[in-house]
Amino acid sequence: MKIISLSDITEExxxxxxxxxxxxxxxxxxxxxxxxxxxxxFKPGQTSGQHIHxxxxxxxxxxxxxxxxxxxxxxxxxxxxxCVVAEPGExxxxxxxxxxxxxxxxxxxxxxxx
Length: 114
Known about the structure:
The protein has strands at 12-14, 17-27, 34-42, 56-64, 66-71, 74-79, 83-86, 92-95, 102-110. The protein is an all-beta fold. The chain has one domain (27-110): Jelly Rolls (Sandwich). A six-stranded antiparallel β-sheet has the order 1-2-3-9-4-7, with no helix packed on it. The radius of gyration is 14 Å and the shape is globular.
């Protein structure tokens, strides 16, 4: 069993843009198939930068604020309560297009090789 409190976790930069801070609750290797379970806080104007995961699903839940999640060059406006899945091989980017914080809880799930 593992119990985690976000208030006890030290912030660190996300890999695609270290200026965006996240708190990692579960890391690669702690639970089979899950590569991470984290919460990121995008300040106004911050972007993760476009990137691809070839063998990973990435699931995003908007916890606070609103912004844009771009998948395969299509922009999707999202706000609190929205859940978005980027599938393996899909180019994606998260952008805070507002003047408020944009908080996303997300996890990666390893995809089986085809």
